[in-house]
Write a structure and sequence with these properties.
Rossmann fold, alpha/beta, globular, 391 residues, six-stranded parallel β-sheet, 38% helix, seven-stranded mixed β-sheet
């Protein structure tokens, strides 16, 4: 069997949602007997160096990352979202392409990982995994309205330069884009209609050997449980909408909420407990959490494709969510969960109550649905087929 080389570019594979997705995709490639060339600026490195030299590289990485952030703050003073300029980078096209890979998979360019100029120099097939909307904007990782005063000539020129660089890269026949949702694909095609055959929707993989339905699992508590893992600092995750909905719920249940501190009593009759616990970093424990829950609530205002949802479905637990991003694609009513009219907390409360009362989890099979879409072999073959179109 011939060895296939895939070069993967990312900032790291340890911290953050995109890093987790990248790490899982690398494992998928390796399961397919691909030889993976890993190009990172933080965490693990392909070729370990001497201790002092590694520290020097870390210092260089930190300085360039801060400089990239400083450029964005200078150009977008009033911006509240995370930004990346794309003007700085530590990974070169020469190093990425020297092993003559079958294709290059770019997961991240922020934190001065790889500059647009270097990406433009790549000659091998390039698959860009779009975890957010950065390729659709000049600096921000999310599409937001940005006001530019008429006298901000420098900002206009830098913006135009960055957007022109992105457009030129995406116009190359050897470059394609993988989106995590149909919604994201439509946004790309609206701005870059020339992509056409060089864009695809492929979700992040979820291993069925890590997240799976435990038939031997019995809840340790007689009261039904609801899982929420979106955190309590980023309003895009909709934790405030969840609290509004919980106050209107009539069924009795416990909300398991990693990252929440203490216990909150809520519900129409104070019959619901939101129970905090430490954040879960172990995937085995996370799978158990999903198995113990009757549903997982994902009340996000904005998402690409939340891995909490795909992990929950692979573990066999239905998802209740609003109709945003990739959730539109993967939360199918009475197949994998229930969708709610966007940001309607009355309906969210009703759907949570209905899911508990009707024992939704016992009536549908989210795991079988998820295995056909998110499993490692399915996603790996999709990437391989898509990369073959890029020449």
């Amino acid at each position: 069997m011939n060895t296939i080389n895939v070069s993967v570019v990312a900032h790291n594979i340890e911290f953050g949602g995109a890093a987790t997705a990248c790490r899982r995709l690398i494992m998928t490639y390796q399961d397919m007997d691909f030889k993976v060339g890993l190009f990172l600026v933080a965490g693990q490195r392909k070729n370990p160096r001497r201790y002092a030299f590694r520290n020097l590289m870390r210092l260089r990485s930190a300085i360039l990352s801060r400089l990239d952030s400083g450029i964005c703050q200078l150009l977008e003073k009033n911006h509240t979202h995370w930004c990346s300029s794309g003007l700085l980078g530590q990974i070169s096209a020469r190093n990425v392409g020297k092993s003559d890979p079958l294709f290059v998979n770019i997961h991240w360019v922020g934190h001065a990982t790889m500059s647009l100029r270097q990406i433009a120099l790549l000659r091998d097939p390039v698959v860009i995994t779009a975890h957010d909307e950065w390729w659709l904007t000049a600096f921000s990782h999310y599409l937001v309205e940005s006001k530019v005063e008429s006298n901000q000539i420098l900002l206009r020129k830098v913006r135009e330069r960055v957007m022109n660089q992105k457009r030129e890269i995406l116009q190359k026949k050897n470059v394609g884009v993988v989106c995590l949702s149909e919604e994201m694909k439509e946004k790309f095609l609206s701005q870059y209609p020339f992509l056409n055959e060089r864009i695809a929707v492929i979700p992040n993989p979820v291993s069925g050997s890590v997240f799976y339905k435990r038939n031997d699992f019995e809840s340790s508590h007689s009261t039904p449980k609801v899982a929420y893992l979106g955190g309590f600092t980023d309003k895009r995750k909709g934790y405030d909408l969840l609290f509004e909905a919980l106050a209107k719920c009539e069924e009795k249940f416990i909300v398991t909420a990693p990252g929440f501190k203490g216990v909150l009593v809520t519900g129409k009759k104070n019959q619901i407990k939101v129970v905090g616990q430490p954040r879960i970093t172990n995937e085995h424990d996370m799978n158990n959490l999903f198995n113990e829950a009757e549903i997982t609530v994902v009340p996000s205002r904005k998402e690409a494709l939340p891995q909490v949802a795909t992990e929950s479905l692979m573990a066999g637990t239905p998802v209740v969510s609003f109709q945003v991003g990739g959730l539109i694609d993967v939360v199918i009513d009475n197949v994998s969960g229930l969708k709610v009219a966007n940001f309607d907390t009355n309906q969210l409360a009703s759907m949570i109550d209905f899911s508990i009362n009707s024992q939704l989890k016992k009536r549908i099979s989210p795991h079988h649905f998820a295995a056909k879409i998110f499993s490692n072999p399915v996603v790996g073959e999709a990437y391989l087929s898509f990369s073959a179109k890029l020449k």
